[in-house]
């Protein structure tokens, strides 16, 4: 991944963070060096 940004969180009903969400892209970094972008969800255990 060339970049990982725009972090947001998912909270359960008790206010605990269960997942982190990021926007990401391929390439060596920077918007001009990428060909694809997507969102990724990372579960916390």
Describe the structure.
By secondary structure, this protein is an all-beta fold. Helix content is 0%, strand content 56%. The protein contains no helices and three strands. A three-stranded antiparallel beta sheet has the order 1-2-3, with no helix packed on it. The model has no long low-confidence stretch (mean pLDDT 89).
How do the strands line up in the largest sheet? Answer: 1-2-3
Instruction: Note the gap between the termini.
Output: 23 Å
Beta strand %:
over 45%
Helix percent reads under 10%
Q: Would you spell out the secondary-structure blueprint of this structure?
A:
Elements: E1 3-11, E2 17-25, E3 37-43
Antiparallel strand pairs: 1-2, 2-3
Defining traits:
mainly beta; single chain; three-stranded antiparallel beta sheet; 45 residues
Provide a quick synopsis of the model.
The protein has 45 residues and is mostly beta strands. Helix content is 0%, strand content 56%. A 3-stranded antiparallel β-sheet has the order 1-2-3, with no helix packed on it.
